[in-house]
Automatic annotation (TrEMBL):
Any one biological process term the GO annotation gives: ribosomal large subunit export from nucleus
Alphabetically ordered keywords of this record: ATP-binding, Nucleotide-binding
UniProt GO molecular function: ATP binding
Cellular component, GO annotation: nucleus; preribosome, large subunit precursor
SUPFAM superfamilies according to UniProt: P-loop containing nucleoside triphosphate hydrolases
Gene3D superfamilies: P-loop containing nucleotide triphosphate hydrolases
InterPro entries in alphabetical order: AAA_lid_7 (IPR040848), P-loop_NTPase (IPR027417)
Annotated organism of origin: Ancylostoma duodenale
Presence of the UniProt keyword ATP-binding in the record: yes
The protein's name: Midasin AAA lid domain-containing protein
Midasin AAA lid domain segment(s): 86-196
Length: 264
């Protein structure tokens, strides 16, 4: 309300005083508000200290309203709102949290590069929209998707580092051997999938997919499967075993169940 023009404020005054008239400039018409009407006016404004040409309104005018003060949104409130946006999944929770932290820090540094500044939810919504718009613009102009930076890989005799994840399980050696055997036979994407495998089951799956491309090379296929077999023996895994009831049901056997009362 403290950003409204003087003409708007004068029009509101005409609604509140003895005239009880609402003037619409676009229609050049006035509408009378009956005394028995249940018409209510709601207005909102930010603190004048936030700048943006906000001015102090006369106390006599402000007193025509019932003043309700609302606390500022916390970082958790803003983050919860941002996560509900359609483009939030593409940005990721970590980036959203960083965006909120940056805006809050800049808002607290009132003398940073010519401050003071006022950062609020509206600014963050624009930032999120700009983030999505820039990704779309990049894909349109360069003809390729805008992807995140590749994961940095490093390894030694004991551990394999995949970004921030450290893999020191029994399958590390198997991964290294498989990469050596397949490095000149398959595409780099298949090697990355082998390195990123989290357990022996996933390693077996991605390796078999890679072996499908080199099935003519019988020697490499046999060596890779031997490596997988050794890794499987040393890795803990779960095995599904059918119960007696399932076996009887599938194979059509009679099953005697004792001490079961089916009567009601």
């Amino acid at each position: 309300m403290n950003l409204a023009s003087q003409a708007v404020l004068e029009g509101l005054n005409a609604c509140f005083d003895h005239r009880r008239v609402l003037y619409i400039a676009e229609l050049n018409r006035s509408f009378e508000i009956p005394p028995e009407s249940n018409c209510r006016f709601f207005a909102c404004q930010n603190p004048r200290a936030q700048g943006g040409n906000r001015r102090a309104l006369p106390k006599s005018f402000v007193n025509r309203f019932t003043n309700i003060y609302v606390e500022d949104l916390t970082n958790e409130d803003i983050l919860m709102i941002l996560k509900e946006l359609p483009s939030a999944a593409q940005i990721g929770d970590a980036r959203l949290e960083a965006m909120v932290s940056i805006t809050m820090r800049l808002a607290s540094q009132q003398h940073f590069l010519g401050g003071p500044y006022s950062f609020n939810l509206r600014d963050l919504l624009r930032w999120v929209y700009l983030f999505k718009k820039l990704r779309d613009l990049y894909e349109e102009l360069f003809g390729e998707p805008c992807v995140a930076a590749p994961v940095v890989l490093s390894a030694d005799q004991n551990e394999l580092h995949i970004g921030k994840v450290v893999d020191d399980s029994a399958i590390v050696e198997a991964k290294g051997t498989l990469c050596d055997l397949l490095s000149n036979c398959v595409e780099q994407s298949a090697i990355k999938q082998i390195i990123a495998a989290g357990d022996i089951t996933e390693l077996e799956t991605v390796t078999e997919l890679a072996l499908a491309e080199v099935k003519e090379n019988v020697t490499v296929v046999e060596q890779c499967r031997e490596v997988l077999a050794c890794a499987a023996r040393s890795a803990m895994r779960f095995e599904w075993r059918d119960s007696v009831f399932v076996k009887a049901f599938v194979e059509g056997y009679w099953l005697l169940i004792e001490d079961v009362n089916l009567c009601r």
